[in-house]
Design goal:
Length: 291
């Protein structure tokens, strides 16, 4: 006898009736596909928000003295909470903690050769990552769609994505500076002379940072040397998009703080400003807001 049930994820047809769940599932095919897309979006958003060096507590310590552990602003704090498997967000488990709890439950429920009580021991110590835990969930996705608590899982995933979006809005903008110019080696060119091989990795930074660190060669660039990186000159429109600051506000900062300016070689009406001066103004005001 065919088991006919309604989709429990809340979908409705034009008449307001729920769609029929797919055979062996608690939801219809469409809701199953939407839930899988939701998981992919969560994984991608998490990877983008946590792929910045400045989010790592204590990262960037220099020989001049050890930086105190932990983030330097509440904006970074709002991202860090989602990377700790023990953290909670608004009273509920944060991103990694939520995904890890479901993945751990799935491993225990789906264990075949390993007793459920020993499943936790199969996870390498301190190796809980979003990629690994999400892989567990997606590998058992068909089984997941057949569980009676599927609607609770879907609701938590939607709330989790909203929390990540909120953290994204409170975070300091991340800027792409350009290729790292650090010389990492030498090679003999066609003329028989030594030619430098530069790192070339893309440098990124938060706009309120005091230094830029290359994730590839570990070179550190203090603010006094930022003029050596990337393009020194930019325009108001590009800065407004990078920093999420209105153009009118940037013009005011330029006037008050005395940014260096020059006309654009491509257009006499287009004014270029010094990026280092702009980032300095942003950093000073950002610290003032955070403080």
């Amino acid at each position: 006898m065919t088991d006919v049930r309604a989709c429990i994820l809340g979908c409705r047809n034009a008449s307001g009736l729920p769609f029929r769940a797919a055979p062996g599932r608690m939801c219809c095919h469409r809701c199953g596909e939407k839930l899988r897309d939701l998981l992919d979006t969560i994984a991608g958003t998490y990877a983008r928000l946590t792929g910045i060096d400045e989010l790592i507590p204590g990262h960037g310590d220099t020989a001049g003295g050890r930086r105190p552990p932990g983030p330097r602003s509440p904006a970074v704090d709002s991202l860090l909470v989602h990377t700790d498997v023990r953290s909670k967000w608004d009273g509920r488990p944060a991103a990694l903690a939520t995904i890890e709890s479901y993945a751990r439950m799935i491993r225990e429920e789906r264990s075949i050769d390993t007793p459920p009580g020993q499943m936790l021991a199969t996870v390498p110590d301190r190796r809980v990552t979003m990629q690994r835990e999400m892989a567990t969930i997606t590998f058992h996705f068909d089984w997941l769609l057949a569980q009676p608590w599927l609607d609770e899982f879907a609701a938590e995933m939607r709330d989790l994505l909203v929390a990540l979006w909120f953290a994204d809005r409170t975070a300091t903008p991340v800027l792409r500076i350009g290729p790292c110019p650090t010389v990492v080696d030498y090679e003999v060119d066609e003329r028989g002379e030594l030619a430098p091989i530069r790192c070339g990795a893309t440098l990124r930074m938060r706009a309120d940072a005091e230094e830029i660190r290359c994730r590839s060669c570990d070179a550190v660039w203090p603010r006094s040397r930022w003029h050596e990186l990337g393009d020194e000159w930019t325009d108001y429109a590009f800065l407004a998009a990078e920093l999420d600051v209105p153009v009118a506000t940037l013009r005011w900062w330029c006037q008050v703080d005395g940014w260096r300016k020059r006309p654009s070689p491509s257009s006499a009406k287009r004014v270029l400003v010094c990026r280092v001066d702009a980032l300095k103004s942003y950093s000073e005001r950002r610290r003032g807001v955070v403080a």
